[in-house]
Amino acid sequence: MQCSDPDPVEQKKTTDTNLEKVITIRNLYKAFGNFEVLKDVNLDLYKGENLVVLGKSGTGKSVLIKILVGLLTCDSGEVIVLKKHVDHITYKELLELRLKVGFSFQNSALYDSMTVAENLKFPLVRNQRKLGKAEVNRSVEEVLDAVGLLATLNQMPSELSGGQRKRVGIARTLILQPEIMLYDEPTAGLDPITCEDINSLINEVQERYHTSSIIITHDLTCAKAVGNRVAILLDGKFERQGTFEEVFNTDDDRVKPFYDYNFIQ
User: Fold this and answer.
1) 23 and 44 in contact (C-beta within 8 Å)?
2) What's the mean pLDDT when you consider all of the chain?
3) Position 31 in a domain
4) Could you tell me if residue 81 is inside a domain?
5) What is the pLDDT of residues 165-221, one digit of tens each?
6) Cβ distance 210 to 48 under 8 Å?
7) How many CB atoms lie within 10 A of CB 93?
8) pTM
9) Rg from Cα positions in the chain
10) What is the domain extent for residue 84?
11) Would you say residue 132 lies in a domain?
12) How far is CA 194 from CA 134, 163, 167, 200, in A?
């Protein structure tokens, strides 16, 4: 379900490009056999910025994210995340880097056999073994409170709505205090009201935790509400980047259908 266009939506201010770059991608190329997915991709993510990545299904958005965290390797090009060259670091360094990059999965990826609290404790205890029980509990309560779901502490995931599951998934990512957040289709499958709630939460996370984020979506209402910048992936390249208005102020037949599908249909 596509979310309706809120009226009005104020475009977030464009990021000051004098800020530090936390992700730099240059001349990235990735193919699977004869199928070229990413061709000469160039992109920057600035410190404290929400960057929205748009593209049709199968255009390589998820492949790009996997390359950023070392789950896939590029065929050529350069990928720098938090000053680390992802293709040229040891496995130990890669694991340390991944702790600084939080990934919010499209399906929330919660363990159904664990309570909400246990889902949040799991990554914290596994990665920060020196924390005491009181510190762990305090961290769990803090992030649940931040996403507005402290009352769900002892509930099972099956008792939560789709929007609540999304929020808990974001809380579980935040508990490790990442510097970068990667959101994969954060509003997919949600009703318009819940979409607005998730959009507001993404902005609140940016402001409260000072995260730098990449938001992958095909929902233009989400893109307009949360993006400091928007980059649209076309034919394996980022052909258009800028504010929401700058990207969609075009007669390009590859771009117009995105806008028409979301706001005119």
Assistant:
1) yes
2) 88
3) yes
4) yes
5) 999 999 999 999 999 999 999 998 899 999 999 999 999 999 999 999 999 998 899
6) yes
7) 14
8) 0.88
9) 18
10) 17-100+211-265
11) no
12) 33, 6, 10, 10
